[in-house]
Design brief:
Blueprint (H helix, E strand, L loop, with lengths): L1 E3 L3 E4 L2 H8 L2 E2 L8 H13 L5 E8 L4 E6 L1 H10 L8 E9 L2 H10 L9 H9 L10 H11 L7 H12 L2 H16 L1 H7 L3 H11 L7 H12 L8 H11 E2 L10 E2 L2 H16 L28
Helix pairs in contact: 1-3, 2-3, 4-5, 5-6, 5-7, 6-7, 6-8, 6-10, 8-9, 10-13, 11-12, 12-13
Amino acid sequence: MIKSGKPVVLKVTANQISKFRAISRFVGDRKLKPAIQKMLKEDVERGVVLPFIWATCTDESTGETYRVDGNNSSAFLYENFSSVKNTLYIVLTHYTCDTTKEVGELWGVFNAKESSRTSREIIKGIAVTDPDLDGISVDLLQTGAAAIDSSDFEDRATRGLNRGMRIVDDEWKGFIHFLDKLQKVSPEGFTKRARKMTVVEGILNTFMLSPGDTTYAFDFWRDVLGGRGELENSPRRRLAAFLGAAVTHSDSANSKVTVVKRPRMLFTIHKVWNADVAGKSTFPQNPSIGYKNGVKIPKLLNPAN
C-alpha cells in the first residue's frame, strides 16, 4: 500500500537542497534534461516560479529511501542557488510503500497531467522494479503494453502509467514473455512483420485464447514471422507475405504500397488463424479477400476445442 504523509511547505535553503540531493535517485528515474534546466533558469530569472514539487519515498521492503520527484529542479538549484535572488519554496511530501513495485508506480504518477514523463519513460521506470522483466527491451515492453492496454486515455503520461502497471501485472507478464520469445526466435521476421501495433494486437488475441498453453499460438506466429510453412500457399505463408508488405500509413514516395488499417488487419489475421486451426492446407493469395468497411471481425477459433 502507498501511504502519503502531509505535504510540508519549506523555504528553499542551500542545506535543504543538499539534503534532498543526498537521497538516492529512484533506479528508474530519467537523466537530467538540459531543456528543463534551461526552462527553470528562465523562469527563475523572470520571477514567475511556482513552488517546486519534491517527493521522497521509503520502500519498507528494503528500508531504502528514494527521490521520486524533483530531480531536475533540485539539480538546477544545487548548481545555481547561490545566484538566485528571489525567495523560492518547495512543497515536500514523504511517502511510504510496502514494495519496490509500488515505488515504481508512485514515481510514474507525478506530473502525469503535464505529460512531463512519456509513456516510454514511465514503462521503463516501472519495469526496472520487476526482476521478471529483466533483460527485455524497452521497445518490446512498450509494444506489448500498448497492445494490452485497451483503455483510451487522452493524457499521454497517464496512458503510460496505465501501460506501465499492465506489464508488471502477473496476469499480463506472460504475454510480454511470449513476445520476447517470438522476437528471439525470429528477430528479423519480428522486426519486419510485427512492427505494427495492430499486428501485436492480433498476436495478443490469439495468445489470450489459451494463455496457459500457448504452444499452438507460438508455433503459428513463429512460422508467420519467420516466413515459414510447408507450402507457399499455406495460411501461415500467405499471412507472412501479407504482413511483410503491409504498412499502416501512406508513403508519398511509393504510391503502390497497401495501407492496412486496424479493422482490415485484424480481419485478416483472424481469418487466416481460423483457416489454420481448421486444418486448411491452402489459402487465397489475398488473405484479406472478403473484407469491406463495416464487416465484422471473425471470432477466433480455439485450437484446444
